[in-house]
Write a structure and sequence with these properties.
about 500 residues; 1 helix; 41 strands
Length: about 500
């Protein structure tokens, strides 16, 4: 069950998610994801990544928006809420993005796959939430996925790009390796086209050391242009040490494969393989018995059409759990790991419309990993906070303040703006900024850096004084830790005469 209350004036939505637990015995767990916060981004977000882009100690969110041709940034408040997003253009149809320190300057950068331009672009971070202009690198036809890792052992973040021809519609299909020169510039090291795979195209990639040689190997999933066509497989390539890969083996893991990830779920020291199957609405689990040797796929049902897959210990029992994002059922599914390679379904949580990507991080600093999804159908992200989170909510006594004086009576006028916390969590007022006409001034002392518990308030005294006839205008921006900030109050003053 899923319900929402949308704030009339601010771009955020507060929703509640109810877990639907599968029938049968359930292992002990205390999973609670409530409330669900929703924040607007650009049109049709397809990719999502998480990092501290403005270096304030709080995790932020970036999305790649395929319809609006831009990237949106949501700056985190550190309590699971986010400020209103801002966006900047990056090119044609960005479908995926990842973050890392690509030029080793201590600041997070972005790499974006642009399926409409047949390239990836790199945006070097400035450390304040903004980025330098995009630098393009040709990659192949219709890139839709990329992964960052040190592929050649020189401690730089290199790039593997999956070129699916815009999801199987524009061959040839391929994958590419771009090596970093250490300064955030990339050169093509390998480009592999596959034209004899019966029309299959690559859909996802995972980098992990499968043969214990200290270098990440490459695992690719493959599917057909019709998502629900019963075909698909996994191919594995060994890292040769210079940023090049050689074919190792093919695995028939399931039908219509999408996302892939690898981790040790049975505590035997081997990395196991998990892939999502859109055709069967499931995750396929293949336990690795040794280098290149896997068990037959075990089927674990999730929501409809899973397209993203992550692992994390959500319930704090020391075992890795699996989380899928399901685009056709607008949900995330959670499978709790038992530590022996088996999993217990823990239900499905509602998110926005047509979720396409996912991140797992602790957004509210409570020690519990939270979930965020990018929702292509509703042009937003959903944040599911793990645990009984309490969220502040700000209320202003006015969203516009107007003064009117006579030019013959230049006495300073004062009006009061009340700032209240009507939510459950503590409201922190971080900063108050006045922009515009110097005819306005504000007494900030009572509110700046104030912490308001539920039901508490502070008062801002706003002054207007001018002898210049006409209209004067200004903006008052209030930065806080409630969702959707900063708040903007318009100020206007008319001097008659």
């Amino acid at each position: 069950m899923f319900g929402c209350i949308k704030h009339v004036f601010k771009p955020w939505t507060l929703c509640c998610a109810v877990v639907l637990v599968a029938a049968g015995p359930v292992i002990a767990q205390n999973l609670v994801f409530t409330p669900v916060l929703s924040a607007s981004v650009g049109a049709h977000p397809e990719g999502l990544t998480v990092g501290d882009f403005n270096e304030d100690g709080h995790l932020d969110i970036a999305t790649a928006n395929s319809e609006s041709d831009d990237v949106s940034i949501l700056l985190g408040n550190g309590n699971g809420t986010f400020r209103s997003g801002y966006s900047f253009g990056v090119g044609q149809s960005p479908m995926f993005l990842s973050t890392g320190d690509l030029d080793r300057d201590g600041k997070l950068d972005l790499a974006v796959a642009e399926t409409g331009a047949d390239r990836v672009v790199v945006l070097l971070g400035k450390g304040n939430g903004f980025f330098q202009d995009p630098v393009p690198y040709p990659s192949g036809k219709g890139p839709t996925f990329l992964s960052l890792s040190d592929l050649d052992g020189d401690d730089d973040q290199d790039m593997v790009v999956v070129n699916s021809g815009r999801f199987g519609h524009y061959p040839p299909f391929s994958w590419s390796v771009l090596l970093n020169n250490g300064e955030g510039a990339f050169a093509l090291a390998q480009h592999v086209e596959d034209q004899d795979l019966n029309g299959l195209f690559p859909t996802g990639a995972s980098l992990a050391d499968l043969d214990d040689d200290g270098l990440p190997d490459l695992t690719l999933t493959w599917s057909q242009p019709s998502w629900r066509t019963p075909n698909g497989y996994v191919s594995v390539f060994r890292n040769q040490g210079q940023g090049t890969f050689s074919f190792w083996k093919t695995i028939q893991a399931g039908f219509t494969l999408s996302a892939v990830t690898q981790t040790d779920v049975d505590a035997d020291g081997n990395l196991d393989l998990m892939v999502t199957s859109l055709f069967t609405d499931s995750i396929k689990l293949l336990l690795q018995l040794g280098p290149g040797r896997y068990t037959k796929p075990a089927n674990m049902e999730v929501g409809f059409s899973p397209v993203a897959l992550r692992y994390q210990d959500l319930d704090g029992d020391g075992y890795r759990d699996l989380i899928s994002t399901n685009r056709a059922s607008n949900s995330t599914s959670i499978l709790l790991g038992r530590g022996d390679g088996s999993f217990q379904p823990a239900g499905h949580y509602a998110v926005g419309a047509v979720p396409t990507a996912m991140g797992i991080e602790d957004f509210d600093n409570d020690g519990l990993p939270d979930i965020v999804t990018a929702n292509s159908g509703s042009d937003d992200v959903s944040i599911l906070l793990n645990g009984k989170a309490v969220i502040p909510s700000i209320s202003l006594s006015a969203e516009a303040i107007r003064f009117s004086v006579d030019v013959e009576d230049p006495v300073r006028r004062t009006l009061q703006l009340m700032v209240s916390n009507v939510g459950l969590g503590s409201l922190s007022i971080d900063d108050i900024v006045l922009e515009g006409s110097r005819a306005f001034s504000v007494d900030r002392e009572s509110c700046t850096e104030a912490t308001l518990t539920t039901g508490k308030f502070c008062a801002l005294h706003i002054h207007f004084q001018s002898t210049a006839p006409g209209m004067h205008q200004a903006l008052l921006r209030i930065f806080d830790n409630a969702p959707g900030g900063p708040r903007i109050v318009t100020l206007s003053g008319t001097v008659k005469g």
